[in-house]
Amino acid sequence: MSVLLQSSRGCVLDARSLTDQCYSQCIRWTDNRESHVECSFQKRCFQTLKSYFSVGAGAAMDGGSRDQPTGKLPKKRKRKHSELNQGEIHSQAFHQKVRNVILEGTKALVDSAQSLGYLKGETDQVEEPLPSQECRLAALCEMAKELPQVDDEGQDEHAQSLVAEDGCTSHLDLFSQVTENREDKAAVVMLMGEEYVIPPHTAFLLSDFTRIQPLVHYGRRFDLIVMDPPWENKSVKRSRRYSSLPSSQLKRLPIPLLASPNGLVVTWVTNRPSHLRFVRDELYPHWGVQVVAEWFWVKVTTSGQFVFPLDSQHKKPYEMLVLGRYRPSADASTSHSEMSKVPVEDQRLIVSVPSALHSQKPLLSEVLKPYVGAEAKCLELFARSLQPGWTSWGNEVLKFQHMNYFTSTPADDFSPRQCHR
């Protein structure tokens, strides 16, 4: 069960269970031969046993006022309030505005989860290093730009099958055509010399911002669009983990060509107030998207503590999501479609143990299903992983599908079964 509980305040997720959807039955293609395996995402990635700051007894959900770093306190230069820059002042003001919502809501959800036997600490810790894999996908996308661009409009087919009838994948053009796994089972295949696990009934396009047109020509309108933009910030620049994108460039995303009327658009936003204002006041209005709610993802340890002190000035234990409905015209805003009748509650919390892998967000399919319907067509932009039943796009769209992040065991022949989408 991936959604452990729900209440008026939000929900508690088992993020690893969500990630593991539909990998219990996989077909592995090796040298055009088929074998059956069971795959699961490495458990070590979701074992955040302790907060990054140790807390005094009973301080886990008191806002962190007594939190102190483990061991000796590092010496920090004291700054007067007047030394705070404008961005920091805005961040503090926003934090004070939402602090009680985060604190009280998280405590209530964690208490309820613990009463059901969840978030009571890990009992079978896996003593293994985190999996790692040098992601070369963005670099490959850059190299693919040197190839002649395919005229999508002149193509009879705007999608290609992941695996040919003989089990071969060497025919694939991953950079200029949407690739589909049309089978009921996940597939373990070789792509660009590396082994990846591809969920069933999923589609993806590996490209950067300049070559997103094949996704438009794919010809689908989506009832749910989730995006996690590579926001510009100092941490990203220092780490060089991935290339960031100026906020103004996001307006070029073809959301009006991809979203269904009244479709739900969900954007992950950093805790930088300028990014939040940009999404609410510029980006969504530019697309014709009406803001309907702001949610918070709260990151906790396996025992229910905040992963960072709530009032930490460095990092907060929460991130934001801005939810909106695509309203292409006045007529659409008064549509009687089923989706428009489902109100989206404001300031809901999503509480989960985060992945220890940088930039891996919890999957939102189960949480958002009530607002879009069970048969909704779903799209993720700037994706770094795939989901069963979803279409995904990004220049690292296969990153967390690499076999290094999974464990696999041989499996007996299995009978077909319906996959949960």
Count of individual domains: 1
User: How would you sum up the global shape?
Assistant: globular
| Total number of strands | 17
CATH superfamily: Vaccinia Virus protein VP39
Radius of gyration: 22 Å
Kindly state the mean pLDDT as a whole number? 85
| Measured distance between first and last alpha carbons | 14 Å
- Which class in CATH terms? Alpha Beta
- Amount of beta strand: 15-25%
Helix and strand composition category: alpha/beta
CATH architecture: 3-Layer(aba) Sandwich
Sheet having the most strands: 12 strands, mixed
Order of helices and strands: EEHEEHHEEEEEHEHHEHEEHEHEEE
| CATH topology (fold) name | Rossmann fold
Give me the number of helical elements: 9
Helix content: 10-25%
The strands making up the biggest β-sheet line up spatially as 1-2-14-12-13-11-10-15-16-9-6-5
Write the layout of secondary structure elements.
Layout: E1 3-7, E2 10-13, H1 15-19, E3 26-30, E4 33-41, H2 86-115, H3 137-144, E5 159-161, E6 178-181, E7 186-191, E8 194-198, E9 202-206, H4 213-217, E10 222-227, H5 234-239, H6 255-258, E11 259-269, H7 273-287, E12 289-299, E13 318-326, H8 330-333, E14 349-352, H9 365-372, E15 378-381, E16 390-394, E17 406-410
Parallel strand pairs: 2-14, 3-7, 5-6, 9-16, 10-11, 10-15, 12-14, 15-16
Antiparallel strand pairs: 1-2, 3-4, 4-17, 6-9, 7-8, 11-13, 12-13
